[in-house]
Specification:
The complex is a heterodimer of chains A (299) and B (314).
Chain A lengths: L3 H11 L21 H23 L3 H5 L13 H8 L2 H33 L5 H11 L4 H14 L6 H5 L6 H13 L2 H9 L4 H12 L1 H17 L2 H6 L8 H11 L4 H21 L1 H14 L1
Helix pairs in contact in A: 2-15, 4-15, 5-9, 5-12, 5-14, 10-11, 12-16, 14-15
Chain B lengths: L4 H40 L2 H10 L2 E2 L7 E2 L3 H8 L1 H32 L6 H9 L6 H11 L6 H8 L14 H25 L4 H9 L4 H29 L3 H6 L11 H11 L3 H35 L1
Antiparallel strand pairs in B: 1-2
Helix pairs in contact in B: 2-13, 3-13, 4-8, 4-10, 8-10, 10-13, 12-13
The chains are: A mainly alpha (299), B mainly alpha (314).
Chain lengths: 299, 314
């Protein structure tokens, strides 16, 4: 049973900007049953069903999956799929690779994005306007146009088939620089100026004063960087040949072909691939949705 | 004698100037130090490749041996390549199905989820969660669910006494099925964007319209929808750009098949460059896609400017 207060509380997670309407009914009154549930409940179920099925099939026994028609509900929790996947020498390695690539992308986007964004927001240097414009313009360049030459660049750098080929292109995005610049511009100058006049270096001002004030913008960059690098398949597919360097997403695609009778194992692998993003989402739902809607609306 | 103080102040002034200039130069150096890593990565991996890609598109290149200049041959060949025109056709069909459906569905759901209903937060979460799942994971999941033999979908159809379907293995169904999978994951994004925008519909406007006796439909038609126009324009642009660039889902589920029915344009580019090793040919196809995106993006930007100007006038 949900009371009105808790409904508005959950509503507020998706809508940080919502303020309760002035004519809101007294908070203690329970919302009446709405006919909309008859529409919403089946629809929401439809959206949830594939994910429910993902988890259910990952704990089915092979016999249950392979019979026709397949079982719709597991007879018990069979962890054979998980045991198979985690016992496979490659899978934990792919997980680690994905983690290394995503973590370095997040950290370097925060650091390099802050440095670049701060210089564009607060410092004067020759050509800064033109440079900023050029950086912004690159956001309009589709990845498909650059992927072939990027492959050739990485090849010349000798990085193809190593995690370096995955890390270097995601070190910093124009999005991170631009978003942080916009946020820094909105901060009051006075705090920085005082420290600066007291003899603080720019670097100190940035990391001691500006960065601690910029948590919302930094978390937006972190969330979106993690989401895109963790979920990417196209670039790893192009840049990596040897399976010791695979990311999870790439590993998953080969897994499907190789073990195609072992659907339980494939689904277990899929659950493990989805899990980090899901946990990040459930843990920080509010800032997650905020970052996606705000970056979208301003984009 | 009286001229003595003058040089002093002058040199003082000069020193100040010089110091300020030096300070500015130092600031400029620091600033360049700050932006240099970003500039190197971003421009090095976009401006250089954009030019390189253009040059490549005029060459025959297999990614290994030195390339050969062929002028417009790649582009000419594209116009005669039935696989390319099929890929363009598939991509347009996919976009024309996906974009309006995701937006209409998203708007309808957002309007309902904007009401004060119990459990609304749970509904929102359930509808949004598929959006954060990678196309790879979606692809693997749905190839299992829709597997003609082992899939849950046919199992359910069987229980309902209906015929089994081929889904992704049926050339006539594969593309629409891909659209449905994309709708499953992409509608949540439209819902969230519309929900955020609905918060900005001015409350006094709604109350004024209500006082004037506007019904629900009139309220939606004349008050809510017009304020949502800029967001809708944004979503058309965003969803279209994404639809034109779908790759991962195709790679995981159908590999462009059956019979080329799901070869979308990015898959075609990837195939040419990294499977057939005709990188120049792939680059020319990529350039055509990029130009199409640029033209579309420019058109939408114009539309957006017009709607925001109208909004300001109102």
């Amino acid at each position: 049973m949900t009371t009105t207060t808790s409904t508005t509380a959950t509503g507020a997670t998706a809508h940080p900007r919502t303020s309760p309407p002035a004519d809101a009914p007294p908070p203690r009154r329970r919302l009446p049953f709405s006919a909309w549930h008859l529409l919403l409940a089946p629809l929401a179920l439809l959206f949830a069903l594939p994910l429910v099925w993902l988890v259910l099939s990952s704990v089915m026994s092979n016999a249950e999956i392979n019979r026709f028609p397949p079982a719709l509900w597991p007879s018990g929790i069979h962890l054979g799929g998980y045991r198979y996947v985690l016992g496979n020498a490659m899978f934990p390695r792919w997980f680690l690779n994905s983690l290394i690539v995503s973590a370095s992308a997040v950290v370097s986007n925060l650091v390099l994005g802050s440095l670049g964004g701060y210089a564009f927001a607060r410092m004067r240097f020759g050509g800064s306007r033109a440079l900023l414009f050029l950086m912004l313009a690159t956001m309009a360049v589709p990845f498909q146009l650059t992927m072939i030459p990027t492959f050739l660049v990485m090849k010349r750098l000798g990085l193809i088939d190593s995690l370096g080929a995955l890390i270097v292109p995601s070190l910093v995005t124009p999005f991170a620089v631009f978003l942080l610049r916009q946020f820094f511009l909105s901060l009051p100058r006075e705090l920085e100026e005082a420290a600066w006049i007291d003899g603080c270096s720019r670097l100190r001002v940035l990391f001691r004063i500006v960065v601690p004030l910029s948590k919302p913008a930094l978390s937006t960059v972190a969330v979106l960087t993690f989401l895109t690098t963790w979920n990417d398949l196209t670039w790893p597919l192009i840049a990596i040949n040897h399976d010791t360097q695979y990311t999870l997403q790439l590993g998953l695609t080969t897994f499907q072909g190789q073990h195609h009778t072992q659907w339980a194992a494939v689904m277990a692998g899929n659950v493990i691939t989805v899990l980090p993003v899901m946990l990040a989402f459930l843990g920080a739902q509010k800032s997650f949705i905020q970052s996606i809607t705000s970056s979208g609306l301003k984009g | 004698m009286s001229s003595l103080p003058a040089p002093f102040t002058l040199s003082d002034h000069e020193r100040q100037l010089r110091e300020r200039r030096r300070g500015r130069r130092r600031e400029s150096a620091t600033a360049w130090g700050f932006v240099l890593p970003s500039v190197l990565v971003i421009l090095g991996l976009s401006v250089v490749p954009v030019i390189w890609s253009l040059l490549l598109s005029f060459q025959a290149d297999d990614l290994v041996t030195p390339s050969r200049w062929v002028g417009f041959d790649n582009y000419r060949a594209l116009t005669e390549d039935p696989h390319f025109s099929q890929a363009v056709g598939n991509t347009l069909l996919y976009t024309v199905l996906y974009v309006p459906l995701s937006m209409v569905l998203g708007l309808a759901l957002a309007l309902v989820l904007n009401r004060r209903i119990r459990l609304v937060g749970l509904y929102r979460t359930l509808i949004f969660v598929p959006f954060i799942i990678s196309e790879t994971a979606q692809g693997v999941l749905f190839s299992f669910i829709l597997d003609p033999q082992f899939g849950a979908a046919n199992s359910v159809l069987h229980k309902l006494g209906l015929h089994s379907q081929g889904f992704l293995s049926d050339p006539g169904q594969a593309l629409p099925v891909l659209v449905v999978i994309s709708l499953w994951s992409g509608t949540g994004f439209c819902v969230m964007i519309y929900l955020a925008a609905l918060q900005d519909v001015p409350q006094p406007l709604i109350e004024a319209a209500k006082l004037d006796g506007a019904g629900r439909w009139h309220l939606l038609r004349h008050v809510v929808l017009p304020t949502l126009t800029p967001v809708s324009v944004f979503l058309v642009m965003w969803q279209t750009l994404n639809a034109l660039q779908v790759f991962d889902l195709v790679y995981v589920t159908t590999k462009g098949g059956p019979l080329g029915s799901t070869t979308l344009i990015v898959y075609f580019i990837w195939q040419q460059a990294f499977q057939n090793f005709t990188a120049g040919y792939g680059a020319s196809a990529a350039y055509i896609l990029a130009l199409a995106l640029l033209v579309f993006g420019g058109a939408m930007r114009l539309a957006r400017r017009r709607t925001s100007a109208e909004g300001a006038a109102r």
